[in-house]
Amino acid sequence: MHASTRPANAATPATQRQGQASRLLALLAGAAALLASAFPATAEDSLKMAIAPFLPEAELNEAYAPVADYLSRRLGETVELQLFPNYLSFWEATRGGSDFDIALDAAPVTDFRVQRQNWQVIARFDGEVTQSLVTREDDLILSPKELVNKRVAVQPSPSVGALVLYQLFPNPVQQPVLVFERTNRDVATAVIEGKAKAGVIPTPLVGGYPGLYPVITTEPLPFLGFSVSPELNKRTRDALQQALLSFAETEEGQRILEEQQLTDIVPATNRYYAGNAELLVGTYGY
Prior knowledge:
Blueprint: H1 13-38, E1 47-51, H2 57-75, E2 79-82, H3 87-95, E3 102-105, H4 107-117, E4 120-125, E5 128-129, E6 131-136, E7 151-154, H5 160-168, E8 177-180, H6 184-192, E9 198-202, H7 203-206, E10 212-217, E11 221-222, E12 225-228, H8 234-245, H9 251-259, E13 265-267, H10 270-273
Parallel strand pairs: 1-2, 1-3, 7-8, 7-9
Antiparallel strand pairs: 3-12, 4-12, 4-13, 5-11, 6-9, 6-10
């Protein structure tokens, strides 16, 4: 046998091939990353916009699908609605981390996301909104005190209706018997059909139900706000804000707002909603 003349540290043909293969894989991986960045986001990478379930899912989808489609065209990236069947499922998703990118929500939970989850408000629907404690016109209820131990319909907490109701009846031993309904429309129907003696709904809905009488109307709160997750990069956040504010600047945007009976979308900041999360004190998960 002849002793090998190869140096002890010399690479064998097999190890050379392995090194070449590793470098080739690294080059292919880099090329794949460049290609992926060059193409639009896939459906899995779409922006998810959650909407609080203050109305039935079908009604929310009809009203806000055109809004999402408009934003998708302006951004060049799909904006997908994320709807919830009721406030319980919505609150579980919210307090667990708000695993979506954009939220359209009432003032208390909008401020909750800002304070507890570092979200950022970028726009809002113009105006304010009040809640009304309503009964049937043929029921002679003149004061909330008359409803202690009576059945009162409301969406589950943290709906604004429930938060307002707890403020109207702060004494836990002098409260109505709560009848929880899925949406504000279900609350109105429960009162009209006699399932409940009274209910709490947004004041703008009262006029759509002949036979309802507002016993009391609350102080106004800021209207619905658009906020975004801290995981959303600044470029996308700024582009989304510009797209929202462009509704008032384009014929298409104005048409969508008019057709869906939505108010103008105007600038807003965290400060505008500051303090509203205090209404959630005592709410499970707050």
